[in-house]
Amino acid sequence: MNLQCDVCIVGNGAVGKAAAVGLAQAGLSVILLCPPGQHAVQAASWDVRVFALNRVSRDLLSRLRVWEALDHARVAPVESMVVQGDRARAGKISFDAYSARATELAWIVEDSNLEHALDGALRFTPNLSKVEGLAERIERDSASVRLVLQDGRCIQAGLLVGADGRQSWVRGQCDIGITYRSYGQQAVVCNFACELPHHGTAQQWFTDKEGVIALLPLPGNRVSLVWSAPDALAEQLLRDPLAQLADTLSALPGQIAGRLTPLQPESVRAIPLIFLRTASMIAPRVVLAGDAAHAVHPLAGHGMNLGFGDVAALIRVMSERGAAADCGDERLLRRYSRSRTEDVLLMQLATDGLERLFSTDLEPVRLVRNLGMDLLDRLPFIKRRLIAHAMGSL
């Protein structure tokens, strides 16, 4: 059986679903290929995987009519952020929404909340079909791209979008080269109830040997931990009682939430951290988006924002192609790639550079970086520029 569409998307995560909804709303016929048996479920408890979405992501989700479908009782605005070292006299820098002439710096959204809202949009978007199956190979010619499935079905499209994650099958099939490096770290994630109100403040500690610790605000007196810990420490954190982890976090210098108590004793996860850069975001009749195209260290919280930036750019390029234009035209694909190159490269350079800078425990380097943080905290113009870029306002 042959299926035909303008765009076929491989990938059942938030980036792939957002791309499917957006391109279908732009008037293209879309097929979203999903692995069999995968169904998103709204979590009753607090999801340990959360995203800090910036204004670009929020605006995209609003245009897709997904933002309004979120359970906003489970969305926490970030009104300020404090970044510091783990020592009493370490450098410190703070950001707040008021200085950025905004009401929020970002919004903390659970993965399950986001997926549930996107699944609702998938069901009610015209020109969009969800097909379950596993891809076997890609065939391309000058007129189309064909995705042959393991059960013999074939999906013929003008454009194939690979949004299938870090281990992207689409990327591999297109022989797109990558620069890959493990950070030797894992993001340990868990949620806690806190003794004191956090007032919408995200806190982050850059340590010398224990990685980067972030406590992100959740609704009510709750916080979400993202600890980018070296592999050995991450394994230890997973083995130790969560009460011990709570004691460690409660004792961090400048921590404003007071005593922490694990929300769900059984819910703690660790996600391996990597750096990934692709030689290209495009191939003939193929584009990559999200983690299939790039992966960054989570210390800036922008992995999902980069993916949603890809989706926004792809929708814009396809919406402006003209009624008769082939959506797999090489000129359109190059336009998409050019529009994303600078943003992705800057974020990768910034996050990778910061991780290298703060992972060294050499005293001269530590002194310089602490002085740099203190100096930057006294330069409001530069701080406003940094905040605007992080929010996606530039």
Mind telling me the CATH class of the largest domain? Alpha Beta
Extract low-pLDDT stretches.
Answer: none
Radius of gyration: 22 Å
Q: What structural category arises from helix and sheet content?
A: alpha/beta
Can you give the helix content as a percent range?
Answer: 25-40%
CATH topology of the largest domain: FAD/NAD(P)-binding domain
- The number of distinct structural domains comes to 2
Please state roughly what percent of the residues sit in beta strands, choosing from under 5%, 5-15%, 15-25%, 25-35%, 35-45% or over 45%.
Answer: 25-35%
The protein's oligomeric status is single chain
Q: How many β strands by DSSP?
A: 22
**Please, how many helices?**
10
Say which CATH homologous superfamily of the largest domain is assigned.
FAD/NAD(P)-binding domain
Written overview of the protein:
It is elongated, with a radius of gyration of 22 Å. It starts with a strand and ends with a helix. The strands form four sheets. Strands 6, 7, 14, 15, 16, 17, 18, 19 and 22 form a nine-stranded mixed sheet that branches. A six-stranded mixed sheet has the order 9-3-2-13-21-20. The longest helix is centred in the C-terminal third of the chain and has 29 residues, at 330-358. By secondary structure, the protein is an alpha/beta fold. The protein has helices spanning 14-25, 55-63, 111-124, 169-173, 231-239, 242-250, 303-319, 330-358, 363-377, 380-391, and strands at 2-4, 7-10, 30-34, 50-53, 76-78, 80-85, 92-96, 106-110, 128-132, 135-140, 145-149, 154-157, 159-162, 178-194, 201-206, 212-218, 222-230, 260-262, 269-278, 282-283, 286-288, 294-295. The chain has ten helices and 22 strands. Helix content is 33%, strand content 30%. The protein folds into two domains: 2-50 and 112-179 and 279-353, FAD/NAD(P)-binding domain; 67-110 and 181-272 and 361-391, D-Amino Acid Oxidase, Chain A, domain 2, CATH 3.30.9.
